[in-house]
Structure formats: C-alpha cells, structure tokens
Amino acid sequence: MGTFTKSFGSAGGYIAGKKSLIDYIRVHSHYACYSSSMLAPIVYQIISALNIIMGRDGTDNGQKRIQQLARNVHYFRRQRIDMGFVVYGNKDSAVVPSYQPRNFEKWM
C-alpha cells in the first residue's frame, strides 16, 4: 500500500498484492463502489514522476533527487534526535514520525 500524495506530488494511492486480494478489495470496498476514477491529469503527473525516477526522461535527475532526499532525511532525523525528540520509523523512510519532548516550551 502506498500513496501518491507526498511521494509523487499528486493524489491517490495504490495497493499491490496477489490478484485474489485485489479482487476481494474491489468487490468489498465501499470506496471502489462509490468513488470515481483518478482524473487524467493526476494519472499523467504520477506517470511523469515515475518516468523521471526511472531515468526514462534521458537524465539522471531522478536518481539525484532520490539521493538528495536520502541525505535530507538522515540529516533531519539526526537533528530531531539531537534536539531531544523521540523519532520513530524506518531510518531510510522519508516519513519521520516523532514525538515532542515534554519541555516543548523551550523550543518556542
């Protein structure tokens, strides 16, 4: 399961799995029954982002962006920890859940 919102600058999400799982979700999900398909511009944005990431645009911009993101995430996590925050989650994930310290007023 993933999202296209923050990671691709778009909207929506996806679920990957066995065909039986996907079929079950399609049949039993209210969302699948009562919502509309993604709009074409949203799908185009996602495909464009994937093409950049995979280098299909003829450049290495996608790989450079991923490497820079990894550096930024590691720096951000280190800074949060150094400031006394409790940081959760996978160290390589761009999602950095953290807990505010009790003495929050010192950061104000």
Short synopsis of the structure:
With 108 residues, this protein is mainly α.
Describe the structure.
The structure is a single chain. The protein is mainly alpha-helical. It folds into two domains: 1-58, no CATH class; 60-108, no CATH class. Helices cover 51% and strands 7% of the residues. The chain has five helices and four strands; from the N terminus they run βαβααααββ. The strands form two sheets. A two-stranded antiparallel ribbon has the order 1-2. α4 crosses α5. It is extended and about 50 Å long. The protein starts with a strand and ends in a 9-residue tail after the last strand.
Q: Top keywords for this entry?
A:
108 residues, mainly alpha, 2 domains, two-stranded antiparallel ribbon, 51% helix
Tally of distinct domains: 2
Structural class: mainly alpha
Please describe the biggest sheet, giving its number of strands, its sense, and whether it closes into a barrel: 2 strands, antiparallel
Helix content: 40-55%
Number of strands: 4
Q: What is the string of helix and strand elements?
A: EHEHHHHEE
Q: Termini, distance in Å?
A: 37 Å
Coarse morphology:
extended
Rounded mean pLDDT score: 88
Counting H and I runs of at least 4 residues, what is the number of helices?
A: 5
Amount of beta strand: 5-15%
> Going across the major beta sheet, what is the strand order?
1-2
Q: What is the CA-based Rg, rounded?
A: 19 Å
Uncertain segments are: none
